[in-house]
Amino acid sequence: MSVTPKSPTNPFGPPALGNLPWVTATCGLVLLALWWASAEFRWVPPLFLPGPVKVFQTFLSLNNGDVTGGTLVEHAAASLGRVVFAFVLAALTAIPIGLSMGVSRLVRSALDPIIEFYRPLPPLAYLPLTVIWFGIGETQKLVLLTLAIFAPLALSARAGVRSVAIEQLHAAYSMGASRRQVFFHVILPAALPDILTGMRIGLGFGWSTLVAAEMVAAQQGLGQMVLNASSFLRTDIMVVGIVVIGAIAYSFDLAMRWLEIRLVPWKGRT
Amino acid sequence: MTTLDVDNLSVRFTSPDGQDVQALGGVSFSMSDGQFWVALGASGCGKTTMLNSIAGFLRPTAGEVRLNGKSIAGPGADRGVVFQKHALFPWLNVAENVEFALRMRGISKKERRERAMETLSLVGLEEFSSHPVYQLSGGMQQRVGVARALASDPDVLLMDEPLGALDAFTREAMQELLLKIWDKTRKMVFFITHSVEEAVFLGSHLLVFSPRPGRIVHRAELDFCRRYLEQGDARAVKSHPDFIRVREDVLQAVHVSHA
Question: Are B81 and A170 in contact (CB < 8 Å)?
């Protein structure tokens, strides 16, 4: 494979430099046109893939909720509510615990094996167990999601502690800071970029786990809506659900990136 | 009258690969008011260990450091430290960095801002008080570091190769700035470098260190810093035959000690 020159003025620049917006736009439009044509000219039966016009109409009409056990907004609100609640719960526990693991040998030695063991487990592997323990209600979903978000967040908070430079610690002590002040005024802000990265990863993790969990057992939620639509062969509703799930995940990520620029503008620049 | 006495200081530690290292082997010297002490030597001869002991970051194996007669047990605001790099807080702007020590002491926002601005004017950075530190050049960042160490009005300024990461032109300008600040504040300074020319130019007192174990192999009292402060022309001082002769003598002493 050949490497294309980067730009007329910097022909030997790094390979991952710059974007071509018109290529991105063209690609998207071509894909949309193919989708439209496949439905319009019946290349694919509508049962397998309804066209974009049909999907958009379904999206608009999903507010009566007769097929799916609730309106689209209700499903989305249920899913969002779960993920946000679990995220807050995980953040309130994982960040202090991760920071303690970072600064205390005792806490680190005690918790490291536990977190390192369950972190690589796919949440769907222990989902059946949470169903037996907590039933199929909200508690079970909250437990599952909190666990899924907890591990990456705790580990990033712990890693964040290590990103404080020894010079920064020494400088603070030699300016008369107490150990407590060093923690709150130096270690915590130094760990913030890593904590935000962990939040971003955790949120993505939580969202994907949630949709899967809702497909197993739920009254409401986007995952449930997609699954329920499949039993009625309503492919159009399924596509709407998938697009909405993707759109929400993408907005989460954009919001976290915006937060990163606002809160830790120094990230990667020191 | 402030004094700093280093009394028969030895530091021994176990390196990460399990070897017993004698970083400092019985070093003694005494500093007092208005003196600029420079520690010169190649890497690994205990200069930074020396500074860390004075700052209180590590405990000596034997001997002690006394500030105004009192033995040093840990770090404190009576000893300001300037590092080579990575020591500023990027989440704070220039003035907030300089205010840090005052904030830790609970001094009111208004008063600490006033004092920060005074200190910043000493290093010529008043105009940059609200800038983020990560947007400043290396030389300006070091000036913030100096202002920050001075803001708590310490008895002694400890500087660990503060100019080591700067380009040659900025470095010379910073040397002159440091001497002017020293002249104005009359603080004791303990300054580490491995540039012979920098050591001879800045120091009123010079210590040449040799490695394994770190000890002082050569001492000298110098007056080139005062010549500069009187004449105001650094290049004229540095190109004077006296300066060149002393520089070569010191270089000789370093070579002998490392042979």
Answer: yes
Q: Give the model's pLDDT for residue B188.
A: 94
Higher pLDDT, A66 or B175: B175
Percentage of residues of chain B with pLDDT beyond 70: 99
For A145-190, write each residue's pLDDT tens digit: 999 999 999 999 999 999 999 999 999 999 999 999 999 999 999 9
CA–CA distance, A49 with A37 (Å, rounded to integer): 11
Chain A hits for B84, CB-CB cut-off 8 Å, are 167
Architecture of domain B1-78+157-216+224-259: 3-Layer(aba) Sandwich (3.40)
- CB contacts < 8 A, A to B, total 76
Could you tell me the CA-to-CA distances from B13 to A199, B28, B235 in Å, in that order? Answer: 40, 19, 42
Interface touch B105/A185, C-beta < 8 Å: no
Radius of gyration of chain B, Cα coordinates, nearest whole angstrom:
18
A266:B91 CB<8 A: yes
Domains of chain B: which residue ranges? 1-78+157-216+224-259, 88-153
User: Nearest residue of A to residue B104 by CA position?
Assistant: A177
Whether ipTM exceeds 0.90: yes
B58 to chain A: closest CA residue:
A170
- CATH code of residue A159: 1.10.3720.10
Q: Does residue A177 fall inside a structural domain? A: yes
DSSP string covering A168-213: HHHHHHHTT--HHHHIIIIIHHHHHHHHHHHHHHHHHHHHHHHHHH
- CA B206 from centroid of its chain's CA atoms: 13
Does the distance separating the beta carbons of A186 and B104 come in below 8 Å? no
pLDDT of residue B17: 85
| Domains in chain A, number | 1
Give pTM, 2 decimals: 0.87
Assigned domain for A237 exists? yes
